[in-house]
Specification:
heterodimer, A: 377 residues, alpha+beta, DNA Polymerase III, Chain A, domain 2, Proliferating Cell Nuclear Antigen, 26 strands, B: mainly alpha, 3 helices, binds zinc ion
């Protein structure tokens, strides 16, 4: 294998596939990047137990300045190979691999020789049928990830809850995540596929994917038995799916409420952030909300026996229904409020012990957050 | 006590402390397991008692509808009692202790199911 390439273009693609490479892997060859040169260009691959990323550097894209003199493939240890390429002196670089896998990297006056690994030992990526695919706007998919992944469980005791549950049916996509303390559900309408899908993607995979999607980029999704593939730009992103059935979450969302508060999400967020300064110093991280509809007011209080107390009154847009005192973990509500951005939201309560919902006042059913209160007695 | 003795003394103490710490977390783990098992058995026991009771009542006067709802709400109460005692009663975390008394929406749904 022998090629020359513009270094900046190469670095960009190396960074992309490096996201899938972990130095902690127990399979030695997966600490490497697989590089394949063929008639169309280079294909770089990185992989770990959960995700695999493959990206193409095309010959016919002039800005890559890619010239392939000899086709072939090799696996190079990611850690120092990427460092070497980053630090090379010239704008361009040459890479050639000899028959005994000795790999020579030249740029300007600098020349490195490193040992490569045999690419035929690199695991094959899953093969996914081409005819089952759905295309989303990358921006919207990124938004869906951001809004749901916050509620994913970080505990391995119930592995299925570490993922986001996707249900596609009748032109509607429903994404739900819950760690049992809070739940986040987002839905959108889409077109182009009438097939039904039901699968769970690990939250960690979605976080990585989200970082890679660029603005205004389309995202094609293909689903197989235990893998999902996302295609965007010149990149293929594979993730394993979580096995098992996701619990039925449709029954968790209360339909009735006895107290309702409408206010700007950032106003409440700022207030809860202040109150949590004290609650975080306390052993039980709890903030109390007192709602008095007759005054049109709500009060947020934080109480930490060792540090002090905080009280803050807010005058929401509207406060209706019964009086209520409710305590909750401010971190859950903060995460939920962050995900709304600058929007007017409605919070609906049914009792001090039951979960309450937060949703945007406009188009409220497409995005719902649910938080369970904390019993303080 | 010379320097060397001081050094080995510390070293010994360090390894003993480490050992203690491992034993300690092993014990805590074991205790958790026992607690979980205990609450699981409690729930199971309650279920069996209810079943037994309803069976023996059914034998006396078969097919009385109100009794069923009553039984239903009683088992609901048992679950709520266990939940308030600090344990999950949901399918997801059945019998596991609830950490820091935090709520669980799966438990909530079961206790308050209509
Ligand atoms: Zn539970």
């Amino acid at each position: 294998m022998k090629f020359s390439i513009k270094r900046s273009a190469f670095i960009q693609s190396l960074n992309t596939v490096s996201r899938a490479i972990s130095s902690k892997t127990t399979i030695p060859i997966l600490t490497g990047i697989k590089i394949t040169a063929d008639s169309e260009g280079l294909i770089l691959t990185g992989s770990n137990a959960d995700i695999s990323i493959e990206t193409q550097i095309k010959i016919d894209d002039a800005k890559n300045e890619l010239v392939i003199e000899e086709e072939g493939s090799v696996v190079l240890t990611a850690g120092f190979f990427v460092s070497i390429v980053r630090k090379l002196p010239d704008e361009k670089m040459d890479l050639s691999v000899s028959n005994d896998l000795q790999t020579t990297i030249k740029s300007g006056q600098s020349e490195f020789t490193i040992n490569g690994l045999n690419a035929s030992n690199y695991p094959h990526l899953p093969e996914i049928d081409t005819d089952d695919s759905v295309t989303f706007s990358g921006d919207i998919f990124k938004e869906i990830i951001g809004q749901t992944v916050i509620a994913v469980s970080t505990q391995e005791s119930r592995p299925i809850l570490t993922g986001v549950h996707f249900e596609l049916s009748a032109g509607k996509l429903l994404a739900v995540a819950t760690d049992s303390h809070r739940l986040s559900q987002r839905s959108i309408n889409f077109s182009g596929s009438d097939r039904d899908y039901n699968f769970i993607i690990p939250g960690k995979s979605l976080n990585e994917l989200s970082r890679m999607i660029e603005e205004h980029q389309d995202l094609e999704m293909r689903i197989a038995e235990n893998q999902v593939l996302f295609i965007f730009g010149d990149t293929f992103f594979y993730s394993r799916l979580l096995e098992g059935n996701y619990p039925d979450t449709s029954r968790l969302i209360p339909e009735e409420s006895t107290t309702q508060v409408q206010l700007e999400a950032p106003t409440l967020l700022a207030s809860i952030e202040r109150a949590s300064l004290l609650s975080h110093a306390s052993r039980n991280n709890v903030v109390k909300l007192t709602i008095t509809p007759s005054d049109g007011r709500i009060e947020i209080t934080g109480d930490s026996p060792d540090v002090g107390t905080v009280e803050e009154e807010l005058e929401p847009e509207s406060v209706t229904g019964d009086e209520l005192e409710i305590s909750f973990n401010p971190d859950y509500v903060k995460d939920a409020l962050h995900s709304f951005g600058k929007t007017m939201i409605e919070i609906s309560f049914s009792s001090a012990l039951r979960p309450f919902t937060l949703k945007p006042t406009e188009d409220g059913d497409s995005f719902i957050q649910l938080v369970t209160p904390v019993r303080t007695f | 006590m010379n320097n060397k003795e001081l050094y080995t003394g510390f070293k010994n103490m360090e390894s003993q402390t480490k050992l203690m710490l491992t034993r300690f977390s092993e014990l805590r783990e074991a205790m958790n397991e026992v607690l979980e098992k205990n609450s699981e058995l409690e729930i199971e026991n309650q279920h069996l008692r209810e079943l037994l009771e309803s069976r023996s009542k059914e034998d006396h006067n078969p097919k009385t509808q109100p009794q069923k709802t009553q039984k239903h709400s009683e088992s609901r109460k048992t679950l709520e009692k266990l939940f308030n005692a600090g344990f999950h009663v949901c399918n997801q975390f059945y019998g596991k202790p609830r950490e820091n008394g935090e709520g669980c929406m799966f438990c909530d749904e079961i206790i308050n199911r209509k």
